[in-house]
Amino acid sequence: MTGSIPIQYFLIISTLMFFIGIYGFLTRKNLITMLMSIELILNSVNINFVTFNKYLYPQNLQGHFFTLIIIAIAAAEAAVAIAIIINIYRNFRSIDVDNVDEMKF
Amino acid sequence: MNSEIMFYLLAGMILVFSVLTVTSRKILRAAVYLLFVLISTAAIYFMLEYTFLAAVQLTVYAGGIVVLIIFSVLLTSHISEKAIMADRKQSLLSALAVGAGALLTLLTILRFTFVPSDLPAQTSTVTDVGNALISYDRDGFALPFEVISILLLAALIGAIIVARKEKDGIVSAKEKK
Prior knowledge:
The structure holds 2 protein chains of 2 kinds. By secondary structure, chain A is mainly α. Chain A has a single domain (7-92), classed as Helix Hairpins (Orthogonal Bundle). Chain A is built from 3 helices and no strands. Chain A has helices spanning 7-27, 31-56, 62-92. Chain A is elongated, with a radius of gyration of 18 Å. By secondary structure, chain B is mostly helical. Chain B has 7 helices and no strands. Chain B has helices spanning 2-23, 27-47, 51-76, 88-111, 126-134, 142-163, 170-176. Classes of the chains: A mainly alpha, B mainly alpha. At the A-B interface, α1, α2 and α3 of A face α1, α2, α3, α4 and α5 of B.
């Protein structure tokens, strides 16, 4: 199904997605949107793993399983992060990083 | 030819919606754009013929995580509230750093010669995936499977402990002592 598409195309897509995610992480102030940027970054890495698996080592499924486990970790991370964010909102009435500086040294 | 058109369509969708996710001033819209990115990624997994992985991507990412994010957006911010963005100088500097990093990585990717393998592809049906997840020989993934189950349990308990109300939680535990 991917016959004539070179592997580089997939890698370019995932690279651009990764750096867009980093840009969002650097410029966003809201904790939830920062979490969304992290999801973008994780997703781009997943595309990389799957593409390398399919193109370079199709005889086994290591990239496939690595991606499966990254998805599970991302779900766990999102659950814990949102619990922390809601707790922060309860204490500070805001989830902008500028307002949450109680522990800042 | 058809798959090429499909790939360009998906690539365009991923890039456009990724940019919109990080630049949209309305948080709820950003979450929906993220949903589109994740669905396009699932479509790319379908193109690469990893159908089980695509199904997991759709259910866990697009179904679970995005719903969780939308719920927390609704809990923590007003629907018409606009996100504060970084000031001009900071976003310019970030764009510069990100552009430099992307340029470096893209140059490295384009200069490197990948040697595609000609070996027959291992099928990834649900049977294959299930067998690999519980087998402990060379191509088995029993240990990561067990470890991830413990991690999920820990995350579940941790999320409940962190998010529950302070009054009958940590404070009362201290007072009991």
